TrEMBL record:
Binding of Ca(2+) 1, residues: D75, V78, G80, D82, S84, E96
PROSITE patterns in UniProt: PEROXIDASE_1, PEROXIDASE_2, PEROXIDASE_4
Keyword Lipid metabolism: no
An example Gene Ontology molecular-function term: lactoperoxidase activity
Chain coiled-coil ranges: none
Note accompanying the cofactor annotation: Binds 1 heme b (iron(II)-protoporphyrin IX) group per subunit. Binds 2 calcium ions per subunit.
Keyword tags: Calcium, Disulfide bond, Glycoprotein, Heme, Hydrogen peroxide, Iron, Metal-binding, Oxidoreductase, Peroxidase, Secreted, Signal
Source taxonomy: Eukaryota, Viridiplantae, Streptophyta, Embryophyta, Tracheophyta
Chief localization: secreted
Site feature (Transition state stabilizer) residues: R70
Cellular compartments per GO CC: extracellular region
PANTHER family (alphabetical): PEROXIDASE 16-RELATED, PTHR31517
Residue span, Plant heme peroxidase family profile domain: 33-329
Protein name: Peroxidase
Length: 347
């Protein structure tokens, strides 16, 4: 009997962790002006250019995948997916990069976007926006790390402005936020609790800074945190101002899979914003569903990524196609940041 039970458990775990079958992608509505064939004529090699470059880069630095995914999130959550997070500051004020939530975005990710853009331009000319490059880079960061390869509608234009520090901070939920604090921020951009759980799965890859979870280990252990996990974190972060980092997913830190949700079930989520997904009744069941069914997670994650990737996009004659992703065409001196209400900010 014991051996039969063991065989059953092994078989069940194999089913849970095995690669999912191919899924027919369920998609949210596609924004007018975007399409899956937008560059079919003007840049038919676009997909292969992006994917080939990133495959080479990830062999040298797999951490770049998480870095690119995070930049895409931080772009879309602040005034929409317009590439504004890629802009450097100007005489009119500091850029989104300089706002506190973005100070830990990796410079290598910004360089990779510019490098991809240069490769595209050499093949196709300046026809592909930086915002679209970022969306494709995020998609391939997911798939090349073991996750689903979802379809990305293209046709975004690049924004002419960047958001102020206050608007950037207000638009990006902090890792110390719980579900009750995060949901109203997401509701403003038409994302719901299901999107929150699915998009948080991006934390299955990447690293977190001690400062982002010091509230959970100083002065004492957050009672929702596993004791052994706490002990290990205190070893990594010996003081509340430590500059060290640790992996976001202790089970498979470089693989895009559903183990992040298994972490949460075992009270081994790194941030408050992670672990509270399992503690809050509005999100707990979805965490459980994803932990037990990787195919379901991949399907819902793809849906929410496409939904997020269309937030307040610029299309048609709006915006521009930047020749340099870090600066507006014609130079950055004339750029004026946009405040939280969408009005031009004065400095």
């Amino acid at each position: 009997m014991a051996s039969l039970l063991l065989c059953f458990l092994v078989s069940a775990l194999a089913l849970i962790s095995s690669p999912p079958p191919a899924l027919s992608q369920s998609l949210p509505p596609i924004v007018n002006g975007l399409s899956f064939s937008f560059y079919k004529s003007s840049c038919p090699e676009l997909d292969s250019i992006v994917r080939k470059f990133l495959k080479q880069q990830f062999k040298k630095d797999i951490g770049l995948a998480a870095a690119l995914l995070r930049v895409h999130f931080h772009d879309c959550f602040v005034q929409g997916c317009d590439g504004s997070v890629l802009l450097d500051g100007s005489a009119s004020g500091p850029s989104e990069k300089n706002a506190p939530p973005n100070l830990t975005l990796r410079p290598e990710a910004f360089k990779a976007i510019n490098d991809i853009r240069a490769l595209i331009d050499s093949k196709c000319g300046s026809v592909v926006s930086c915002a679209d490059v970022l969306a494709l880079a995020a998609r391939d960061s997911v798939s090349l790390s073991g996750g689903p390869r979802y379809k990305v509608p293209l046709g975004r234009r690049d924004g002419l402005t960047f958001a102020t520090r206050n608007a950037t901070v207000a638009s990006l939920p902090a890792p110390t936020f719980n579900v009750s604090a995060i949901l109203p921020v997401l509701a403003r951009i038409n994302l719901d609790a299901a999107d929150l759980v699915a998009l948080s799965g991006g934390h299955t890859i990447g690293r977190g800074h001690c400062a982002s979870f010091s509230n959970r280990i100083f002065p004492s252990r957050d009672p929702t945190m596993d004791q052994t996990f706490f002990n290990n974190l205190r070893g990594t972060c010996p003081s509340s101002n430590s500059t060290n980092t640790t992996v976001l997913d202790i089970r498979s830190p470089n693989v895009f899979d559903n183990k992040y949700y298994v972490d949460l079930m075992n009270r081994q989520g790194l941030f408050t914003s992670d672990e509270d997904l399992y503690m809050d009744s509005r999100t707990k069941q979805t965490v459980l569903d994803f932990a037990l069914n990787q195919s379901l997670f991949f399907e819902k994650s793809s849906f929410s990524m496409v939904k997020m990737g269309q937030l307040s996009v610029l299309t048609g004659g709006n915006g521009e196609i930047r020749t340099n992703c870090s600066a507006r065409n014609g130079g950055s001196i004339s750029m004026l940041p946009v405040d939280e209400e969408g009005e031009t900010a004065a400095y």
